[in-house]
Amino acid sequence: MTKKPIAIFATFGVCLGVSALPAHADAWQDIVQRKTLKCGTFADVPPFAAPDPKTREMVGFDVDMCKTLAKHLGLTAAVTPLSVEARVPEVQMGRVDVTIANLAYTTSRADQIQFSDSYYVAKEMLAVKASNSASSPTELKGKRLSSAKGSTSELSITLNGSEPVTFQDTGSAYMALQQNKSVGMVANTMTITKLVNQSKTAGSELKMLSQPMLLEPVAIGMKKGESVLAEKVNAALMEMDKTGEIDAMWAKWLGLDTEFKMTREEHVQPISAIKFTPIP
Hints:
By secondary structure, the chain is of the alpha/beta class. It folds into 2 domains: about 25-120 and about 215-270, D-Maltodextrin-Binding Protein, domain 2, CATH 3.40.190; about 125-215, 3-Layer(aba) Sandwich (D-Maltodextrin-Binding Protein, domain 2), CATH 3.40.190.10. Helices cover about 35% and strands about 25% of the residues. It has helices at about 5-20, 25-35, 60-70, 85-90, 105-110, 150-160, 170-180, 190-200, 225-240, 245-255; strands at about 35-40, 50, 60, 75-80, 100-105, 115-130, 145-150, 165, 185-190, 205-210, 215-225.
């Protein structure tokens, strides 16, 4: 009679010990065992990630980043195309190990996933007509500025104290500026660069102001709580930066010999080291 309770207690103790174990194995160990890094990119957003018209294979800056990151980790990259909206949920649910899809840091995203160090800082830039004497966004406080509706461009206009005039796409925002429905338009650096170049041969010529409207650190997204994976990714990013591999990929897809003509000014650094106003 006295032995049965002891046996029950012992069994209960074993069960309690099992239930205290982690619900899943460490993500890094899972990745090492399968020898593959599941990497989420854009489905069709060139030059970051899009199907090659000839081979139908995914190509672009973010695809190259995935493959190079995997190589530094001793793994093979498995690229999974994602919609813009799925970039955070897919990594949050563990369907991909990392998201490399021009993913900008925001406070709401940081509540859901963890970010690596930033490997470049995206900028929301302001274009005005070349005849406009303004040299900084602060000179256009209270003025009408056009942008895509619901974008961080629209948010930057509000933060600047200007009046947003929004449209469903950047093309319409551009036409609003050309038709004097706004005194400027805001979009990311690549878009503004293309439109400024376009304006040199059609419509009123534009210029891009040098001071950004908003800074957005771009980094790799990972599931929260995976500290080993985060450490591995950050170490690999730093090595990729030191070897010039990120610079080479940038030059290929975004550099001065491309239609975007962008210069990579920032290098790999912790997001906490960047002076910027976080987007909600």
